[in-house]
Amino acid sequence: MRKSQISLFIILGLALLLIAGLIAFMAGIGQKSRQELAKAYAIKDSLKPVQDYVESCIKQSAQEPIRRIGLFGGTLEPSFYMYYLGDKFNYLAYREPNTGINSILTRQNMEREIALETQRMAERCIDLGIFTGQGFNIEKGPLDVNASISMDKVSFYANFPLTFIKDNHTLKIENYHTEVYTPLGEAFEVAIDIVNSELSKGYFDQVAFASKHMNYVIQKHRPYPHIVYIINHTGYVFRFAIEGEETVNQPEFVPYTPNLGCCISADKVCYSNTLKDACEMKGGSYLSFPCSCSAPIVQEQNCKTACRSCKSYSQETRAYTGPKKESGESWCSYDSITGDGYDYVGSRHYVHYCLDGTEYVEECRDYREEICVQEGKKAVCRPNRWQDCSACLDRDCCENTELRDCIWKDWLSAKGKCLPQVPPGLKFWDSSAANVCASGSELKTCDGWSCPAVWVDDAAMYCYMRGDCGAYRNINDQITYAGYFNTDFGSLPRDYIYHKDGLHKKGDDYVLKLGIDNRKQAPHINRFNEAQNTMVMMISSAYSYLNEISTLSISDFLNPFKPKPKIRVMSASICSPWVAPLGSKDCQKCSDYMKPCTEYRCMSLGQACVFENINGFPTCKAAPDDKIAPKISISEDFLPAKYKALDKTLRIGSKTYKGYEITPPLKPHKAFSIAVQTDEDTTCRLTYTPRIKYFSLPSFGFGDSSFSKRHSIMLRVPEGAEAPQKMLSAMNMTKVTDIIDVLERPKEMMQNYKTRFAGPLAAYRFVTGRDLTEVIDPIIKNVIEIVDKLTNELPFYRDLSRVLIEKFNEGGIYLFVTCIDRSGNANEQEMFITFTIDKNNNDTEPPIVLGFNPANGNRFANSLESMQISAFLDEPSNCRYSYSDKPYQDMENEMQCQRGRYDLTPHYGGSYECRTVLDLLDITKTYIKCSDNPQKTENYQLMIERGRNSEVNKASQYFNITESGQLIASASMLYGAKARMNQSPFQFQINMEDSMNCTYSYGNITKYFGVCPSENSLEIGQFACKGSLEFPSADDKSIELMQASETLPQEGIDVNDDNVTINLSQYLLPSVWIKNSPYSIAINGSYSCVAFNGSGIRNLSCKVGDETICTGEFIVEYEAISCLENAALAVNITCREFNARKRNVNDESYVYILHRSEPLIITDYGPRDEAASDTAIYAVTSYNATCEYYRELALTRTPMTYANGRHEARLLGLAAGMHRFTVQCKDEFGNTATQEVAFQVLKT
């Protein structure tokens, strides 16, 4: 039997014993020997004995009501209460959205209840028969008891008319008075002060109070989401509760606003944050907000002798072996490592404190909604201000401890660097946690085939540091991995990020020093982006690999004319709610000494743990023993119309799998939903293959991670994936199913790779000078060793590969489903779901815009002049827009669109994004039309000059001129390449990587290459496209230089200092006589010139511009100059895919409208001139906004609360003199308004 159950029986037994004793006592008063009572209360010459007797009954009868009214929080019959450890706790405050309201427990109400109950019990106690035995006739009236509660006693005033008649003598008595000394009145006022403090400040420091009043012990506990207080004043107990509000899984923070007034009761007790009607109904006087209530005057009391210290409790040794603590000292303890984003799932923070030798514990609010912070010898629970960490984009914002509890991790390579110091706890077993965790997912585009290992690690940490998400440890030190998945095949998160074992016992070793008074917090409405579809993120990531493969070739890496291409792939870090360990073996660990069991702790210990809270006794127990695996089937009623699920079996090796085939084939790009149902609550996961021996395969959630009998996913898929032909060609294959043949002989394929891929390996060695086989050989050796170890499993792997490749070749996919119940039972054989994408789909529908960002109809900041927008479409498209409605072809503006079929984004179940920047008007009305089936187009340019020699700028096997004068170039090598040809016309050949329909054009001439045959030249491009080019006709000028004693003056010849300039554009004669001297040839236009004589031909040095100037020196008898007009061809090559499909265009425009918001204006503010030392600064805005204020020259800002149509902040205890503040308000559209507020506080 558990200790808690034993304690319960002891408490109940004592209570029954006490009640039985009381009943016996009360009955005994009436059943004692009347002779004894008559003797004790014998009437002689007055009715004083009668008065004493009645007053004794009243006093005895009052004991139990006085005790019970303290235990029940100020009432004998609670109507609005909670159970805590088997007892009723009356709520002295209740919760309304974003505020707590005082229930206004009055002294007068307690007095009435005590008086009525005392009167009822006294009537049973009073037995007038003891007086009739003394010879009296007695006439009696009704008993009426009244009570008055003061600080240290309850006074009773009774009216009970009695007339005693004997022997013609008449005696009368009517009024009675007695007192019960009890601190009920003082405890009541302390309780009201606690409620006032909780409602106005959000907390009460019971340790500080008890340290000054050692006759008090005040215990505070937080059974989520409520608060209970137990006040013990010298043995008298007053207990009550304050209703709380569940805020777990809510990323928003709206400041708690105590914006109601105060109520002053008839006996001058003050109540904070009350409703006016309730106050007046209870006879109180209402003071409008702002107002404050003073604490009651309670006499301080020290320990009778020196206060005793405590030997503190150690979480690690589970005994009082911790450091010595002084009376009045408080300190923090934690369930695990804490801070820096590392708190374990299920963990909680605690404040321990020592009072005169006894250690007490106060739990901070569960789900780590409160944290324990410590300064010196004082610790407090205060709110965990984590909500707006992710909104901070720089360190200053992140580490502003005045407003938030965040940490800036600049080393983190994930998308966010500002994270909660203490991650919030979540109801990770509930679907509402998914949105919080989903914001920790990200798509990462990386250079290379895999993202860096540091990003893989950081993305996993970024996930679990946001809350109870991803893969992480629980308070029992167990790690589960099901909540996190990364599509990057290159690496898994490394173990170090999950910490070493045993830190769940080291909670006493940590202290959070985040400021015990830091309770201010900025409002934060967390507008999460649309939850990203996990499966679509998977598809986006997987297809990004295909996208890269389909655009790369070997020549990309070998091109000497351009930088090596960067392979860019998209990896998905999928962050889901944390998943508890399977089973129920640790459920009993929920209850621990000084640590109450809670739903949060219980659910973190095992998926089969069940939490119950019966009459305030929390228990965590194992679900009923269940060894039966769940049964799974597809939910046919969930399928879209016209689709069916056909029963199928799948044979892989010796195993047979049962499942369903969706028919007919799915239409590409159209939303499709699938659901499975189970015969009991389960969580389900998907994999692309069945479970494989020796391998741990990644999986992802089928729907959310909560337990349910139905799980569903919605997705859009592009057209069926296919292996790019050039990838197959690189492996000497013609079709994808050829891979199956290779898998039949894996060792042979790997051992013969040097022969199989001789061409690419030689090309790599030729260009780089490095032997790639030196890198590959060790890898092949390791793979062969693995294959040898798996010899017995190879038939299954080959069969599995065959099944998956054949389905891939059909444009289809298999999904294998595993569902696990609360006891950890999984279906023994996975159920599969298979479908294909319709490759022959006749697309006749135009693209659909699924949504916009910002949303259509949104408002934007008044000052903005332009804004980037995105449209999300259901298929790859080209989109255009205009500011008036017109046909697609006439629209002036083009959007930048993702046109590749694998360029999926996770939004809207899988979509394609188009972006642009709009110029903004007051009302920006944009008309958008889109066209689908965008044609794949590739463009290249080749520059060729005419020259006297044929040459290329950088010769290689990828760009060269043959002996026959043919120019050959790889299309992917044309970047920066130039050629010079000395003949016209000439033949040229461009080698393409893909078979496409290509044209080439130069000047006004456009020609088709025609069919480009395959030449199996993988290194330079498989398909050879051949054409011919011809330079335009050109001018050829020449002149002969003849030796003479002097240069003869002729038209077009100038002589200057023995330097002869010949202008060939003017000179018409074939010869010129000049003396030996330097000369210059000038020609209008662009020319190249050579000189030749008996010694040979030489090029002249020419400067070419609008005019060509060539220089030389005439030193022989004869020389011929020949100048050829330069010509260049800019050859543009355009290639389009064959069989381009019909393009469907929107008939009607999508009308997208954005509105300029009105400017935000502060229409009123105050105070303006003079104000009291206790006042409120306020501002009224033209429409809804959030405001904050700061003092002149202050570095931090304080949020204001909204109440009664204005933004307010209380200012208490202002010194006399001038005060200056700035109020700044901001709306949801980004508008801001600022107002200076200055006023004078006069001396009092």
Describe the structure concisely for a colleague.
With 1244 residues, the chain is α+β, with helices and mostly antiparallel strands. The strands form 19 sheets. Strands 30, 31, 32, 33, 34, 35, 36 and 37 form an 8-stranded mixed sheet that branches.
Provide the descriptors you would attach to this structure in a database record:
1244 residues; alpha+beta; Immunoglobulin-like; six-stranded mixed beta sheet; 19% helix; 35% strand; disordered N terminus
Question: What does this molecule look like?
Answer:
- This protein is an alpha+beta fold and 1244 residues long.
- Among the domains are: 46-181, no CATH class; 632-721 and 811-836, Immunoglobulin-like (Sandwich); 735-808, no CATH class; 849-932, no CATH class; 936-1031 and 1078-1139, no CATH class; 1157-1241, Immunoglobulins (Immunoglobulin-like, Sandwich).
- Helix content is 19%, strand content 35%.
- Strands 30, 31, 32, 33, 34, 35, 36 and 37 form an eight-stranded mixed sheet that branches.
- The longest helix is centred in the N-terminal third of the chain and has 29 residues, at 3-31.
Query: What is the percentage of strand-forming residues?
Result: 35-45%
Secondary structure category: alpha+beta
The beta-strand count equals: 75
Q: If you average the pLDDT, what whole number results?
A: 83
Radius of gyration: 45 Å
Question: What is the CA-CA span between the terminal residues?
Answer: 67 Å
List the helices and strands and how they pair.
Blueprint: H1 3-31, H2 34-40, H3 48-71, E1 81-84, E2 87-96, E3 99-102, H4 107-125, H5 129-132, E4 137-140, E5 144-149, E6 153-166, E7 169-181, H6 184-201, H7 206-212, E8 216-221, E9 227-233, E10 236-242, E11 261-264, E12 270-274, H8 276-281, E13 285-287, E14 310-311, E15 324-325, E16 330-334, E17 349-355, E18 358-363, E19 370-375, E20 378-383, H9 395-398, E21 406-408, E22 418-420, H10 433-438, E23 442-447, H11 453-464, E24 472-473, E25 479-480, E26 484-486, H12 534-551, H13 554-558, E27 568-575, H14 599-605, E28 609-614, E29 617-622, E30 632-634, E31 644-652, E32 655-663, E33 672-687, E34 700-701, E35 708-715, H15 725-730, H16 738-744, H17 746-751, H18 753-756, H19 758-768, H20 773-789, H21 794-809, E36 812-821, E37 831-836, E38 849-853, E39 859-860, E40 866-873, E41 877-882, E42 893-894, E43 896-897, E44 912-919, E45 923-932, E46 937-946, E47 951-952, E48 959-961, E49 967-970, E50 978-981, E51 986-992, E52 997-1002, E53 1005-1008, E54 1023-1029, E55 1036-1043, E56 1053-1056, E57 1059-1063, E58 1071-1074, E59 1077-1084, ...
Parallel strand pairs: 2-10, 32-37, 39-66, 46-50, 49-51, 55-58, 57-59, 68-75
Antiparallel strand pairs: 1-2, 2-3, 4-6, 5-6, 6-7, 8-9, 9-10, 11-12, 11-13, 14-15, 16-17, 17-18, 19-20, 21-22, 23-27, 24-25, 26-27, 28-29, 30-33, 31-32, 33-34, 33-35, 33-36, 36-37, 38-40, 40-44, 41-42, 41-45, 43-44, 45-66, 46-65, 47-50, 48-49, 51-54, 52-53, 52-65, 55-64, 56-57, 59-63, 60-61, ...
